[in-house]
Amino acid sequence: MRTDDGPWYPLTDSLASPPTFQPFRDGPVSIEPLTLPRSRQALMLPLITQVTPGLRRYAYGRLRIAAAALYARVLAPVIVSRLAGADLVHMWGGDLLGAATVRAARTAGIPVVVTPFAHRHQWADDPASARTYRTADRVISLLETDRGWYRELGVPAERIEVSGVCAPASRVGGAGHIRSRYEILGPVVLYLGVRRSYKGVDVLLRAAEEVSSVRPDTTFAFIGPGPQLPPTRGARVLDIGQVDDATRAAWLEAADVLCLPSGGEIFPLSILEAWSVQRPVLTSDLPALRELLAKSGGGMTAAREPRAFAGAILTMLQNPSAARAMGESGRRFWAAHHTPQTVAEWHERLYRSLIEQEAVACVS
Q1: Contact 150, 159 (CB under 8 A)
Q2: Residue 32 needs a FRET pair 20 to 30 A away by CA distance; which of 140, 222, 253, 324 works?
Q3: Cα separation of 85 and 187, whole Å?
Q4: Is position 17 within any domain?
Q5: Do the beta carbons of residue 296 and residue 190 sit within 8 Å?
Q6: Is the same domain home to 234 and 298?
Q7: Among candidates 159, 240, 224, 231, which has minimal Cα distance to 192?
Q8: Quick one: which H or E segment has residue 324?
Q9: Which domain holds residue 71?
Q10: Residue 212: enclosing H or E segment and its boundaries?
Q11: Which CATH number is 320's domain given?
């Protein structure tokens, strides 16, 4: 429905559709916009309740089920019109569009897979989304941790598969330029991500002050969009902001450790990017991140508070051989399970299995 990185609101996908885009190709893949005719958009006017003062507090409760049912009835025929010749539908996400996609696949008589990226008590775990997951042929979780969450939402265990995300190898060769440009002589601790409150920028900034009292040669670099960083005492902090892909890769290569003190994550891509260049990671001790770090051996977790993060950072910086071993373990884990090729092959096997099951069911 969109290729830009603009804002999203509860009505973005219905009454206030995002700007459309021209169809294009990415190699052999055709990308086309999913546009809703104005005549059908008018049928969605009841969704205004999702942003009406007094009612919007219920937007993601039971009221969302009725909203999703309306949205699915209106949009599913448009999706069906695009499914000629399709063997299977894969929906990435949940919410209203997920409900419409599952309804369209059922109408077309083809299997449907959903990868929701649901965050517990944060995103895509409302009653309507849960109903969508329960009616899909397969729901793909990223880790065993969120598999359990989908089970709690009522998805049968036999319909849940686990496949993490993927990331290509980060380019190498730019670290020297970064260190020279910013006159970096000591270790680099890297934050990579959007600066939202739950991402823990404040935690890392306070940890930086503690680390710098022991290792004043440490540079803390913050990469990603968001508000300007507040001043810190005694720490060398670089507010780099948003960068292009090449600069992002150069910073990953220049870093000694990637830090993610987030309050809500499942499987951050930045971790895989760091592992692709053998860099260890330090994350908050969320259940999903504990699972990921335990499986990979690619770093450490710490309680999401400044002193704990400072202690873990110092442990990694003062034991460089152990940190290198973590980075190497992370790279092996990425290469074995989370390159684009390995994840694509996993999905293709799942698709073939579902298509074959559908064929057998039709014959019988």
Answers
A1: no
A2: 140
A3: 55
A4: no
A5: no
A6: yes
A7: 224
A8: helix 320-337
A9: 24-166+341-363
A10: helix 201-214
A11: 3.40.50.2000
